[in-house]
Design brief:
Length: about 250
């Protein structure tokens, strides 16, 4: 058993159910993220991936179950209080502040944790350098292309000094070169000590990043294993390819 597996998890999702009338978006999902770990979450469209992120981030209350950060329940906390506890996230679609510069967009995020403007600007510049946006600091954020908007989202999330970073399809719609750059960025963030839960449809990115992969299907967890096992799991292949399938998902 690895050292990661022996440690108490930083995130512990316990039997989470999210119901909308008769529809269950999540049906008793449990998972854990250890300190220093990158956990991938995959699944077909409608599997419940983004709902899971919303529950962890405090945007969607679970109908049943609980979410623990460092052993302490976050149930009932609003999203901004969950963020202050140490969970930051990105969104599938980046909507930058209108008329704000790239730098000011990150300064606002820093000020959620600190009221000192000079220190906030220094922290914001540090985050922009990390995500390779320092040269665009004075550009209006709404003028950034899609890839740079996504980088800005990461900088804003990291400005909160999270212990756990949630990345919700951050690489969707990016060209191959940008995907490779994002994989390298996520690795740097993780190496600096931040645990990461990444929801993604880009399989080669998940395969390159994740220590473990959780697979959701119709709101249920059907796999939770290292990548090499997950991509050869018959239940996973059936979920993606339908009842008639053969081989693997085409990943080494």
């Amino acid at each position: 058993m690895s050292a990661l597996a022996l440690a108490a998890p930083i995130l512990d999702v316990r039997g989470v159910v999210v119901s909308y009338g008769r529809l269950q978006a999540l049906a008793g999902v449990s998972l854990a993220v250890q300190r220093g770990e990158i956990v991938g979450v995959i699944g077909p469209n409608g599997a419940g991936k983004s709902t899971l992120v919303d529950v962890i981030a405090g945007r969607t209350p679970p109908s049943r179950g609980d979410v623990l950060l460092d052993g302490v329940s976050t149930r009932g906390l609003r999203a901004f209080r969950v963020a202050r506890r140490g969970i930051a996230r990105t969104f599938q679609i980046a909507h930058p502040f209108r008329d704000a510069t790239v730098l000011d967009s990150v300064v606002v995020a820093v000020l959620a944790q600190s009221a000192e403007l000079r220190a906030a600007r220094e922290r914001a510049l540090e985050m922009l350098r990390l995500v390779d946006l320092a040269e665009q600091a004075d550009v209006r954020a709404e003028h950034l292309d899609v890839a740079r908007r996504k980088r800005l989202q990461v900088a804003q999330a990291l400005a909160l000094r999270p212990r756990l970073l949630l990345l919700d399809e951050i690489m969707a719609g990016l060209p191959p070169g940008e995907i490779d750059a994002f994989v390298a960025l996520v690795r740097r963030i993780n190496a600096a000590g931040t645990a990461i839960l990444v929801v993604e449809h880009v399989m080669r990115a998940i395969q390159a990043l994740a220590h473990r992969i959780v697979v959701l299907h119709h709101g249920e967890k059907i796999a939770d294993d290292p990548p090499d096992r997950v991509f050869r799991d018959p239940a996973v292949m059936k979920a993606y390819l339908g009842p008639r399938f053969g081989g693997s998902l085409g990943l080494a």
